[in-house]
Amino acid sequence: MSEETKAPGTQPEQAEAPKAETAAQSQPEAAPETSAQAEPAAPAQGASQQEAPKQDDKKAEAKPKKDWFGGKTAKELEAAKAKLEASEKKADDLRNQLLRTAAEYDNFRKRSAREADRKFNDGVSHAITQILGILDTLDMAANAACTDENYKKGVMMTLDKAAKALDTLHVTEIEALGKPFDPNYMNAVQQVPPAEGQESGSVVQVFQKGYMIGDKVIRHATVVVAE
User: Fold this and answer.
1) Cα 127 to Cα 134: distance, rounded to the nearest angstrom
2) Which fold has domain 172-227?
3) What distance in Å separates the CA atoms of residue 192 and residue 200, rounded to the nearest whole number?
4) What is the per-residue pLDDT across 114-172, written as a single tens digit (0 to 9) for each?
5) Do 167 and 202 form a contact (C-beta atoms < 8 A)?
6) Counting beta carbons within 10 angstroms of the beta carbon of residue 212, is it exposed (0 to 12), middle (13 to 18) or buried (19 or more)?
7) Which terminus of the chain, N or C, has less C-beta within 10 A?
8) Which of 171, 194, 170 is nearest to 181 (CA)?
9) How far apart are CA 200 and CA 198, in angstroms?
10) What is the tally of helices (H) and strands (E) in the chain?
């Protein structure tokens, strides 16, 4: 009775053994399925690796090609070159304008100086014209015969001071006596036969002295000319 009762108890253990065997048999069969599924996955990875360079190429094409020169592209270099040329042209224009302004100022300065000299000479000429009659009278007194030496000496001293004053004002006497007659500086009031040693057309006598300031004649010399 006891052995029979134990025998049925062992049957479940024997029944479980085939289940373990079937589980062991089922496991090897699952492995090929996973390997079969892994094999087709390899091409998918390769395809993705092939597609990645294509995308990189597209990105590289999308980016502007750079001609590196100090980190600048060719377009930026052209823009910088154009800007530099414009700046150089502007600098040339300003330099030319400065040169023209300097030349105009120099011409203005010279013209102003000439005008100032002309106005000064005109004023001096007007003043000298007013006193030339006095100088003519003193000159005649100095050349007149006089027994009073002190009187004659005083007249000569006055004429010397007048000559110094005229020289300070750049007023000069026109040299006429013995010179060829020049209508630009002299007025002939008489012609006389030439004396011995005198040349025809030369001034043989001065009736009235002439004066000039610079190149401007204040008064023409009044002279007598040899025929």
Assistant:
1) 12
2) Nucleotide Exchange Factor Grpe; Chain A, domain 2 (2.30.22)
3) 10
4) 898 888 888 888 888 899 989 999 988 888 888 888 888 999 999 999 999 999 988 99
5) no
6) buried
7) N
8) 194
9) 7
10) 3, 6
* Bridge partners, residue 72, by sequence: 69
Which residue's entry shows tokens 């094999």?
Answer: 39
Which candidate, 124, 80, 104, places its Cα nearest to that of 216? 124
How many Å apart are CA 73 and CA 161, to the nearest integer? 87
Backbone phi and psi for residue 199, each to the nearest 5 degrees, phi listed first: -90, 150
Query: Which structure tokens are listed for 157?
Result: 């001293």
Residue 210 φ/ψ, nearest 5 degrees:
-110, 155
Task: Give the tens place of pLDDT for each residue, 55-104.
Answer: 555 555 555 554 455 556 888 888 888 889 889 989 999 999 999 999 99
Domain boundaries, the chain: 172-227
Question: How far is residue 216's CA from residue 193's CA, in Å, rounded to a whole number?
Answer: 32
Q: Read out DSSP for 85-104?
A: HHHHHHHHHHHHHHHHHHHH
If you search the block for the tokens 């000559």, which residue do you land on? 163
What are the angstrom distances between the C-alpha of 142 and each of 138, 153, 158, 163, 177?
Answer: 6, 8, 10, 14, 18
Residue 223 phi/psi, 5-degree rounding, is -135, 165
> Residues in the chain, how many?
227
- The Cα–Cα gap between 142 and 152 comes to 6
What is the distance between the alpha carbons of residues 110 and 219, in angstroms, rounded to a whole number?
Answer: 28
Higher pLDDT pick, 65 / 4: 65
**Rounded Cα–Cα distance for residues 175 and 23 (Å):** 154
